[in-house]
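Homework help thread (please don't just give me the answer)

Our assignment gives two proteins as sequence + structure token strings and asks us to describe the second one. The first is just a warm-up. Here they are:
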Amino acid sequence: MLFFLRPLIHLLCLSPALWLSFVLYRDDASLGADPIKEIQHFLGFTAISILLAVFLLRSLIILWQQPSLAILHRPLGSWAIFYALLHLLSYLLLELGGDLPLFFHEISRRTYLILGLLSLLILCIVPISLIPFIHRILGKNWLTMHKLVYFSLIFAVIHYFLATKSIELMPVVYSILTAVLLITILYQKFRR
């Protein structure tokens, strides 16, 4: 079963990038009047959706008592980082034209950008801590480093909520889902 799940995860996570590539190649109007914003939002939405899937998987592993499913964390986490980096790059390169001083100026003025960047930095720290010699250096602190991912999810959801600038359905749904998942994970942890 797990033999098929891993390739399936990769295929499912690759499909949004393939869809976006197809739409960009066709150059049709399906991205709306502001295609750059739509690309940014699509990539950000995909990143946060996959990150939520990581936490959902964590809950299911505990609920179903299937620790063997934990091997799916790494591919899901890698895809979440991939889309989060594309989300950032689309903002930096497409929206701001690669202007780094403007990028830092914008970040200093907008809370949701600070939270998004913090979320991405935390996400990037986790795979770096998996490098064997860094893992050895961190010792017992390695697990603490991985627990920072909870903050990454929280920051990402707040970033998403604030970036919409008005109350919309999906940010509210993702906020509620995040709260439920985190409460469930904490409950399962303390129950053991």
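The one we have to describe:
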Amino acid sequence: MNKILIWILPLLLCCQCTQEICHACFHGTCFSKRKLFEGKQFSGQIAVDRMDNVLHFHYKDYRSNDYTAILDLYSDSPKLEILPVDYSFARAINTKTGEVYFSGAKGIYVYNSVTKSTVPYMLFNTTISLMQFKDKLYYTEFRREGIYFVENNRADAMEALADYIVDDFVIDKFNNIYFISDYILFRYKKGEHKAKIFSNIPYSLTTDTKDNVYLIETTTRTLFKMDYVRDRITEVGIFGSGSVFNAVFDKYNNLIYCDAVEERIYMLLPTFSNCTIVKRKRKKENINVSKMMF
């Protein structure tokens, strides 16, 4: 049995099956990664139109040209489509209508997946950093405090969050807002008058098809989710390698994410092989490489 001496992380992923590659271990099940797109520099949010299962994202090529792109996730031969707005950063999707909102260098545009058309929307004197859609459009402005929303084609601010610089946010199935500010996770519950600290650990945030909150701790590559019964964050599992950021769930609840190191977008798919997470101390140890399948 081959053994090597390596430095390991506090969380070690061990696959119990030698025939399947295990790139992630969630709830004791191995997941392999399928490459969707590679070789480019990604920035801003990614989003999935779950009506058509199409991925929306922005990338920059090797000549520093900007592209706003869409990619069919389940086509036999995925074809990249480029939208007419070069630079984009924030994006959000109305899952009921399929309308895709995305920000340019200034302002917000709307892409209609039925007519395949892109039209200007609003706020063309403003740089938008983040967007989410939950019954209405929510957004943040670049280097400005607060979370804003659009209702009846009018933008307004959420008074309770006016003092926070928001680095990431999501809205869950109860219309509670989870957001990162100054490397701290806050929760603003619907009906309350102020946000409260929920965790002192900064996460990358996303929601699944049922609007359950998931959280990624990028330094340890650990995936967590919100346990609504116990009102706490619980561990789901870990990614085997890479630098995970900007994760979303597709129509079938498959996790899609950007890898900052490899400059690729991946989709995780279950192999239905078993795996375990072994907690160990940060020290030199002999690791059985036949069980390390990253």
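TA reply:
I won't write it for you, but here's a hint about the kind of observation we're looking for: The CA atoms of residues 148 and 157 lie 4 Å apart.
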